[in-house]
From TrEMBL:
This is Reverse transcriptase Ty1/copia-type domain-containing protein. It comes from Phytophthora fragariae. Pfam families: RVT_2 (PF07727). Residues 15-155 form the Reverse transcriptase Ty1/copia-type domain.
Length: 281
């Protein structure tokens, strides 16, 4: 970082007086500083609070105000935001309220955010989201554009274990630069050829399904549905079970997760109850 031209004279004066350790204190946060995002979040938090918004307990970057047709939701991602409401007039008033304090750029209806493409069908009242562009970048990164697609991400019955990790230094060097996805990620520390083959199969599955979208149906009742399941002793290395859960809204998933349980379940029933407990948290 370079100091403004006018400050240099003050530093020269300080040095002449024998004050070598001179620093400058910023009165306002600047871009590229580590604390800039935090300072901005505190600033926009105070302004949204003054407009009647309250942060969500589940996500402190989601703010809500009002009920029914007057309800408005503001989602923040650093200095970008989405504003949602049933009433366009409410959205316009919120934009105007934010514009009173900050210079904003209105990009219109959201079409692309954080790698997610958003598509609307106002007649059918549906909203679809996809990651086609991001998926294609992954396929290109691994040079799988012209291969035969896979119908499934993993072969049925495939069990990956730490025993498949490379044992020699040559094998480790061969696998050092190869990244992985989801189920394969726990072997990142010392991944083997079998893990790599499984990862490439996932990429080829993405090639087959890159056009698939999640579609929310606005004609359905907005009722939350929860599903959970467990695979008892699914990890062959330490016999931990696997949790699976999914929350559905308007006919499509909004939350989904698959994780290893923290303790070893003594029965399939115990594993199922632990998965259910994780789902309802």
């Amino acid at each position: 970082m370079e100091l403004p031209e006018g400050i240099m004279g003050l530093l020269e004066l300080a040095e002449a007086e024998g004050e070598d350790d001179v620093v400058c204190m910023l009165l306002q946060s600047l871009y590229e500083l580590k604390q800039a995002s935090r300072v901005w979040n505190e600033t926009i938090f105070k302004h949204l609070k003054s407009m009647g918004f309250e942060p969500s307990d589940a996500d402190r970057c989601v703010y809500m105000r009002g009920e029914g047709d007057d309800e408005c939701i503001v989602w923040l991602n650093v200095d970008g935001m989405l504003i949602a409401s049933r009433d366009k007039a409410v959205i316009a008033s919120v934009k105007a309220g934010i514009a009173k304090k900050f210079r904003i750029k209105d990009l219109g209806r959201a079409r692309f955010i954080l790698g997610i493409e958003i598509d609307y069908d106002m007649e059918r009242r549906t909203l679809g989201i996809s990651q086609k562009a991001y998926t294609e970048s992954i396929i290109k990164k691994f040079a799988q554009e012209n291969v035969k697609p896979c119908l499934t991400p993993l072969e049925p019955g495939v069990k990956l274990t730490k025993a498949d990790e490379p044992q020699t230094e040559d094998d480790k060097a061969k696998m050092k630069s190869k990244p992985y996805f989801a189920k394969l990620s726990r072997f990142l520390e010392n991944a083997g050829e079998k893990h790599w083959d499984a990862g490439i199969k996932v990429v080829r599955y993405l090639l087959k399904t890159k056009d698939v979208r999640i579609v929310y149906d606005g004609l359905l009742v907005a009722q939350l549905e929860a599903y959970s399941d467990a695979v008892w002793a699914g990890n062959r290395d330490d016999r931990r079970s696997v949790n699976g859960m999914m929350l559905m809204l308007c006919g499509a998933p909004v939350v989904w997760r698959s994780t290893f349980q923290k303790i070893v379940a003594l029965s399939s029933t115990e594993a199922e109850y632990m998965a259910l407990s994780d789902c309802v948290k």
